[in-house]
């Protein structure tokens, strides 16, 4: 009786005693022993090279590092192999737009379609209050307060400009790609790379054509043969020659490069320019009416022109290999001036 | 076809995504009042008026949104993880594309869809009677009709749109313009009226013949003469009570608001019973959108959440509502509290009495001490879109049962309890303490003095007990 009472009344006090609580479950799986064999992945070092190595501690550590690198490399290749194996699986999405393709694999002049131009926003002109009435023949209509440039006109003018670039490149002319807007750098460089030309993506230094002697006089010049191999023996003949002038200038933003276009006009250098609805189409020789603000539109146009230049260069080099030249070959004793004069004939 | 004659350019442009963007809607109408209104030009509109536009990630990284020029990353991709924009102008005189973030309406839609509510037809939710209006889906076949729908001629079918304007919402100029349009169509309307009259006469005669037991096959259709028709028009003109229904029917006008009770005894142009799908539309005008407004396409409310531990739940997960305005008197009027549920302002409903037991903190009056602002949990039960395109949400305060199942707890203010002597304000007033009390913080005593001693006592007792047990 007394004991029962004691339990009844004191058990609550017992609970309050500071002792380890009875845990109902295990916290670690290692506390029990299992019969199943667990295979733990253990990294085995790759086989030691069979060549005898002097047993020095420093060398040992270096071989350990080497073997670790070896396993890493092996794992990498294994992963690559697996990836190659699995890449074939699944569906293939074709005709998907990838913005990187404009740089990696720009469209050829034969790829110009109205759909491509529409998708790359070449038809979006400026606000109607900004228009230059000289562009009215390129304008299709007005929508949402902006002028819409006609897609077929853009396509036609772009094809014509591509032909111009191709023929200039096929005749070994110097092509200069100028696009000085923010974000156009990679496009301009890639187009120049394809066309074997030159690029400007920062700023046209005013006077580079009209005052080229002062601004570009110190720049390096080289003479190449028909296969684009340098001819160092002409080096001293080049000393007193004027600075080079491009044979074609492709300007991606004519609005900002009015000075460049004016100098080209003064020096009889033909120009190609993207003419938006607010630009003056008479500033350039071969206008391409299109949107010059969208990087995608500019990327398509510059890519097409770069591809055209690439084709021209291929044509030229192929002809040169067969001995067909666009100019009369010269020799060292001829005056260099004659070479220039041949160029302009 | 006209489309076949279009040039390839025109065809392409017509089908392009940019040209497929809908034109901007009109701004929501301002309430017809002469009172000065204090609202912001930059406030979120009650409903979107321009489409929201997204772009794939690869183009987003280049700022390409398919418009005239790339949009700057600073206000799109750097600002938000899921940038959505709306375009006000593709190009402006300043050579900029006028755009702004559309996250306001996009997020509201996302939050609304997380409530798992179907849309209902608008109904007056009267909280005082605790009778909740039933859920009526606007997608039911008998109400989801326009003037061109097929089931519109069936008995009891309702519609949400009429061809005619809502006369009560027209300004005088609009009404005059409508009158001119009707006058131009007078011959057509008269022809319809004549057809109607003929049909009515034929139906009456058929009924009479049926009642008299005559052979229906031998009945020849009645030919209405011009004199009969003119007489009919005269009768109609002299009796507004019968002309009213004919007019509303002929011109396909939505029914007007109810006639004020003081005019019931007088003669007026009576209207037929409303054909609109909700009686609220008769008061506020036919809806400006489809009654669902595209917010949700589910018809049914019968959706049950199956809790992994607790099984099927009666309630959906309660949602946290921010108290936008506590209840009280504003501008001389006693007002209900206003809470924000998923970006939608909702009148708090249960706050009917002023002294409420167990009300959420901050509901009765503004409380600055609640961290993050005052919030409480609600269970939304009915959503509809009113005539002006605003979302009307009704919600109840979440019950304890609803909250427990989801492990949700209401914010509890730390209880102040009786002031300990060292914290009492008297001390400070008597100038015995040098510390100034922070009255804007919740007062919690740093040391739980009283709770320490009993624990000590019980442990001592237990030790003594064990000692005595082991010794014996």
TrEMBL record, chain A:
Gene3D superfamilies according to UniProt: Glucose-6-phosphate isomerase like protein, domain 1
SUPFAM superfamilies the UniProt entry points to: Ribosomal protein S2
The UniProt record lists the keyword DNA damage: no
A Pfam entry, by short name: Ribosomal_S2
Region (Disordered): 34-62
Keyword terms: Ribonucleoprotein, Ribosomal protein
Transmembrane intervals: none
Homology family: Belongs to the universal ribosomal protein uS2 family.
PANTHER family linked to this entry: 30S RIBOSOMAL PROTEIN S2 PROKARYOTIC AND ORGANELLAR, SMALL RIBOSOMAL SUBUNIT PROTEIN US2M
The protein's name in its UniProt record: Ribosomal protein S2, flavodoxin-like domain-containing protein
Organism: Aspergillus lucknowensis
From TrEMBL, chain B:
Region (Disordered): 23-55, 433-472
Chain intervals with Basic and acidic residues compositional bias: 433-443
InterPro entries linked to this entry: Rbsml_bS1m-like
Keywords in alphabetical order: Ribonucleoprotein, Ribosomal protein
Cellular component terms per the entry's GO annotation: ribosome
PANTHER family linked: 37S RIBOSOMAL PROTEIN MRP51, MITOCHONDRIAL (PTHR28058), SMALL RIBOSOMAL SUBUNIT PROTEIN BS1M (PTHR28058:SF1)
Name listed for the protein in its UniProt record: Mitochondrial ribosomal protein MRP51
